[in-house]
Amino acid sequence: MPTDISCDCKKCARLPPFLRYISRDLARKHLRKNGPALLVPARAIESDGTASSSAPQSSSNRLPTMPDDDLEPFDLPDSTEFDDPGTRNEDGPPQLHNGRPAFIERENVSTTPAPAPDDRYEEVIMPPCPDYGRDDPFDDDVAPIVPPAFTRGEPTAVRLAYLQAVYNNVFCNIPVSTTTDNLNMTLNALDAAGALPLVPPPVRTLTSAKKHLGIDPDAWIIPYTVCPRCWKLYTPHETENLASPACLYPGCVGTLYTESKDAKGRSKRRAVKILPQVSLLQSLRRMVRRKGFRKLVRDSRGAARNMDDDDFVMKDMHDGSLWHE
């Protein structure tokens, strides 16, 4: 296991002895960068007759270390000044505490008092639930719950043609162009047989077929516009109706979107930063409308209420009092 040695570079020579010990590799780097320290003064050699040999030598080229008596007082930066007893002061080097400098031991000691235990419990009052009805501002930003193929009254044969096209593309890995051609061939066959209605006219692309069946995942994602400076959110409906790309938050100078024009000359707004989200209310509505979902919901009409006393332990959401409301 490697041991630390005393560094003999010029920079480390100014440090107290207990701070000179570093690894051998780092000591070699210090010598190359800072140069070796001064040799032992002549008066120290004359007094002893020979150079001090108490310190072990790692190699024949290693220079002798300077005696501790010739070192100047250790200077720390102002950030390490401490006024507490047992630490460094302006009169000299840092004092030792249990063989270590006291200011090193104080680095990891937290002086923040521990917070008092909070044993107060207050009743949780649920805020009033907003009425999300037809005037829901988010309804314009998400797809309808019922697929358009059913709300438009398209016949079963047309819906099966849509489903076959989506199946061939997703599960059979047929390219989009080939799938679109097959969809048009199926619709033309229905038209020749007199089973294709004129109203409503069927769609003839794969992307539109997914939307009409309600299985387009992108239709349920709401791309909120995010201000890159203050992170204020804007719905797509709000973004389209903004008078300027400047953020509406007071004091914010962020830009929300950039404007461009397509091939037809129509102006399009592209958000600088978006946050994709899925509407929780719309997701719950879709789940409730699934076949057999009602059988999965627990019927708590005959269960006891207000069981939230001190000795009762809640094990499920059905134990809460709000579940019965």
From TrEMBL:
Region annotation (Disordered) ranges: 42-122
Chain intervals with Acidic residues compositional bias: 67-84
Name the record gives this protein: Uncharacterized protein
Segments of skewed composition (Low complexity): 51-60
